[in-house]
Design brief:
This protein is an alpha/beta fold. Helix content is 49%, strand content 13%. Strand 6 (211-215), helix 11 and strand 7 form a beta-alpha-beta unit.
Length: 324
């Protein structure tokens, strides 16, 4: 968004995300422009890492960089517990509390985290790597070390989710952004169990707060994700919503999964893709969304049109049913 770039062009990412007043402003921009059903706090999946002993920076044009990644067993001593997120991450709580007041129950306020696998991969690689080379080497040669990192992250991220809920988040999404690096067998060992640890821990404390699990690259892992006890499964666009619905059945709530690049198309193209997704998702237990975030430089008017179609979902389904 043009309004967003006014901040991103002059203020470093961590300053934006760790200054509550700025984070609230950036969180509210999509709501003010498009009136979606949810307002997501402006933050990053890496935000809790410094409070757990892993510092990072976000370099413009490069992305997140961790100068001192985890390499050896001795590095485990650097990891610290997230005992008091209200003290170590106060801006997160302030952002969520303010958003609840600003939104005033006109939309749902969402928090989010990265899953243990995704955060561990960042902490080990030191930056994004298309092959996840260092983490995969650790997986093959020292899996006990990787499991230790994952276990530490899972236990502490559960507390971080609860802190978000206590601060005002009404729904929390778990992003497994690097799930696509994993084979189904690796996903079943190194990702899903640790995400499930978080979900069960949070549900034991806040059973009424919906949790969403989204695995980027979840296609090919449908069977492994059956073990997930989240309230919602988020899907990327590399599968059809029809295939997902056929696999998980009519009562599993699914989210997604329009290709974000569709929003670069015409209104006819957008409507066609949205309609197909809605029909395949069914009239119940489906949350229309794009598959994994809106791409930079997407025409803002097309984002607005997508949100309009989401609000018209029921009438679109009714109209399509009447033509059958």
């Amino acid at each position: 968004m043009a309004d967003f770039r006014k901040f991103s062009d002059r203020i470093p990412f961590r300053e934006r995300s760790e200054t509550a007043s700025i984070a609230v402003e950036l969180s509210m921009q999509p709501w003010n422009a498009f009136k979606p059903d949810g307002v997501i706090m402006f933050s990053d999946i890496l935000t809790p890492l410094p409070a757990m002993g892993v510092e990072f920076d976000v370099v413009k044009g490069t992305g997140p960089v961790i100068a001192d990644p985890i390499k050896h067993t001795d590095d485990l001593s650097r990891l610290i517990p997230l005992d008091d997120p209200a003290s170590s991450l106060p801006f997160v709580g302030e952002t969520l509390r303010t958003l609840r007041g600003e939104v005033d129950n006109q939309a749902t306020v969402l928090g989010f985290i990265g899953t243990p696998w995704t955060l561990a991969a960042y902490a080990i690689e030191g930056k994004a790597d298309r092959h996840c080379t260092k983490t995969k080497r650790m997986m093959m040669n020292n899996p006990a070390l990787l499991h230790s990192v994952l276990s530490h992250l899972a236990d502490n991220l559960a507390d971080y989710v609860c802190y978000q809920i206590e601060s005002g988040a009404q729904v929390v999404q778990l992003f497994d952004s690097w799930a696509h690096h994993l084979s189904p067998e690796q996903f079943a060992e190194f990702s899903m169990p640790y995400a499930e640890t978080i979900i069960k821990s949070v549900k034991s404390r806040y059973p009424g707060t919906p949790l969403i699990f989204h695995a980027n690259g979840g296609t090919g892992k449908f069977s492994q994700m059956e073990a997930c006890s989240s309230d919602v499964l988020g899907l990327d666009w590399s599968c059809t919503m029809g295939d997902a619905r056929a696999h998980y059945g009519p009562k599993r709530t699914l989210q997604g999964n329009v290709d974000p690049m569709v929003l670069f198309g015409s209104e006819d193209v957008i409507r066609e893709n949205v309609t197909r997704c809605l029909l395949q998702g069914g009239k119940n237990h489906h949350i229309l969304n794009v598959g994994h975030g809106v791409v930079q430089k997407t025409p803002e008017e097309n984002v607005g049109y997508f949100c309009q179609l989401a609000r018209e979902s029921a009438s679109i389904l009714s109209k399509e049913a009447a033509t059958v």
